[in-house]
């Protein structure tokens, strides 16, 4: 199986721990990983993961994304300072981000910061457009505003860890976005997510872990990691009536296009 985990976080900044996670991923058939930021610490860890992968043997290819998520609204000035260019400007690296992310809106946990979230999200969409980079978007209970901003600032990229309606999924697809599904799609009460996955065509669907969160069935309760993306692959392959190897291959090709 040839797998691409299109969204994972490295909350540790330990090269040894990152190397162990990546080695387990490669042993499970994961050939590529998108390490995703969202805060200064996560950005630094994502960039470090790319460096660790490039310097070691037996690891998947790692690309990384830097950005500021909805919880970073008090640090909006970071975008104006150009800090999306690297996780830590004091470090020397030959790696450049392949995407801006994760960015977006979350009205479930932080409805009181809606306006600030929209301002931060919009600024990063504009920065990504200037740099011709795809974006990795988080949207929760905010699909209308997310869609409105994407129509205002034409963008390309991925709606990650999708939990919205099939109707909203179709709207994101109409804007050219890929839609990625995490282990949530395997959860017993996630009928809405499975319904959304059913409307996403083969050439736009992606899989991810969103690790260290959301471990899929049958590993719920464990700390998630990229190696576990195989379970989400197998689950969705069965739902779509295809072989896991074939579904892995098509999602791998989709990811390469999404982050080209």
Explain this structure.
- It is a single chain.
- The protein has 260 residues and is of the alpha/beta class.
- It has one domain: Alpha-Beta Barrel (TIM Barrel).
- Helices cover 40% and strands 18% of the residues.
- It has nine helices and eight strands.
- Helix 1 (15-27) packs across helix 2 (40-55) and helix 4 (114-130) packs parallel to helix 5.
- The longest helix is centred in the middle third of the chain and has 17 residues, at 114-130.
- The chain is globular and about 45 Å long.
- The model is unreliable at 86-93 (pLDDT under 50).
Outline the secondary-structure elements.
Elements: E1 3-8, H1 15-27, E2 30-38, H2 40-55, E3 61-68, H3 77-80, E4 99-106, H4 114-130, E5 135-140, H5 143-152, E6 157-159, H6 166-174, E7 178-181, H7 191-199, E8 205-207, H8 229-240, H9 244-258
Parallel strand pairs: 1-2, 2-3, 3-4, 4-5, 5-6, 6-7, 7-8
Helix pairs in contact: 1-2, 4-5, 6-7, 8-9
């Amino acid at each position: 199986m040839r797998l691409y985990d299109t969204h994972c976080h490295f909350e540790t900044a330990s090269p040894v721990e990152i190397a162990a996670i990546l080695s387990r991923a490669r042993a499970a058939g994961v050939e590529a990983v998108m390490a995703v930021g969202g805060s200064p610490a996560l950005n630094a860890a994502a960039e470090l993961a790319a460096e660790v992968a490039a310097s070691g043997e037996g690891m998947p290819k790692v690309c990384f994304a830097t950005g500021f998520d909805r919880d970073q609204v008090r640090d909006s000035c970071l975008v104006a300072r150009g800090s999306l260019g690297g996780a830590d400007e004091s470090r020397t690296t030959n790696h450049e981000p392949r995407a801006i992310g994760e960015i977006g809106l979350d009205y479930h946990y932080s409805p009181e910061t809606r306006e600030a979230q929209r301002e931060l999200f919009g600024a990063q969409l504009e920065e990504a457009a200037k740099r011709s980079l795809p974006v990795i978007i988080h949207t929760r209970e905010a699909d209308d505003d997310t869609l409105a901003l994407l129509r205002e600032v034409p963008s390309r990229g991925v709606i990650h860890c999708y939990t919205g309606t099939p109707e909203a999924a179709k709207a994101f697809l109409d804007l050219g976005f890929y839609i990625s599904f995490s282990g949530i799609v395997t959860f017993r009460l996630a009928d809405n997510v499975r319904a959304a996955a059913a409307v996403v065509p083969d050439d736009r669907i992606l899989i991810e872990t969103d690790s260290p969160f959301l471990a899929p069935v049958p590993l719920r309760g464990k700390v998630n990691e990229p190696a576990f993306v195989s379970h989400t692959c197998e689950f969705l392959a069965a739902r779509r009536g295809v072989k896991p190897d074939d579904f892995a291959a098509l999602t791998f090709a989709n990811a390469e296009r999404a982050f080209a």
